[in-house]
Amino acid sequence: MGDSSSTIGGHFIDVQKSLKFGIRNKYGANVGVLTGDGMEINLDNPITGTFTLCLALRDLGSSTDGFPFWDFASSDSSFTTLLPLNLEVTINSTSDVLCANIKSNQLEQNYFPIKRLANWENVLQIDIAKTEFALSIALAVLFGLVALGSLFGLVVAIIYLMRKKRSIALTDVILVVLFVFSSIRMAYFSIPNRSPVVDFVLAALPTFLYFTAFSLIISFWAVTSQKFFAVDPKKMVKYGAIFVVLSNFVLYLVLIIIGALWHTFNNNTGTACGRRSDSEIREKATKMEHLSISYTVIVAFVSLLLAILFAYFGSKLVGKMKLRGGGTKKVVLTIAAVFSVTFALHSVFIVVVAILSKNPSSIFSFIGLIITEVIPPFYFIVMSTRYFSQSKPSSNSSHSYSQSTNQIRLSVVPNSDRSPRISEVLEEENSSQS
Fold this sequence. Notes:
single chain, alpha+beta
């Protein structure tokens, strides 16, 4: 049905005009609306003849404007899809009862009173809101540009690797994750008519990939800011990797659990004979709502945590750069400020989107996504590619940098070869203190 009960965390932009308790055909077009409780009929013994079935009508809060024909519909086993039965019905306007004569061989199924279009099977036109569709395509283009930027950064990195000017660095991994993240977001906003499963994957997975990309920077900063790692890059890489693996294991375990619960609730079926199926639908909607709230709280919490960690470890690194830091100090401070602010805003944004899920604000989602999910990766890509374009290999050492030092340097994305490496700055600071 056409409500948003199967959506996790609310829609960013809903390009389809959604109807509460609406009915869509196989083409995704709105063709009817539910008008009352349903009933399931199971027979212990076969019977013959024709029977009159009557169901009471009641206001479910859904608009029936534009749907002139009364009918009964039957649902699938999960009560998520209604199929009009094209029955000849009569309505008693005094008692608000809808009735139809049903043959015995068609009796054993579930029935819902509905109002529908005349030629509902062949309606092809999907009701798309023009403004929402335009905003969705604009976001698809923006995320596509982020994906192209990530790909460009990776191509530049590969060229440097082939020329043996440097080894694989953490920045390369981040660019790969950002490329996958932005490509999935682009697909999400490019496809107006998505199945519930596709909608869940395209909406939830990139959010966690987004967290993965920036948690890599956090992990590096966390170990770099510790005094005993400053002069031992191998330990720094080792413990940084452990931090990344453990934190992302927890993140994706949560995603798997949410996905499993979502699948279970979405495929929950009713079994009771004669049970009013509308109550089962409402029970399912309640479970989905609780799951959606849980998802929103988790995502908002992780975003806020990343904001705090960027601010904390960024300030801690800058505080250690007392003797000299030059461009590196400025870059770390800028990155910490940009990412801490945008992730704090992302936390608020996710909560507001969930609150507005029943009546999403497309303009708010459009602006919020640009600020919190387009600008941060774009800024990172620009800074990383700017480093490649401006840095020149030193002739004092083989291939300019050692593997471990290069990993340190690229993780904070300095914008000039004139910027001292963090390891050098911290090593000098430790020496001065001793």
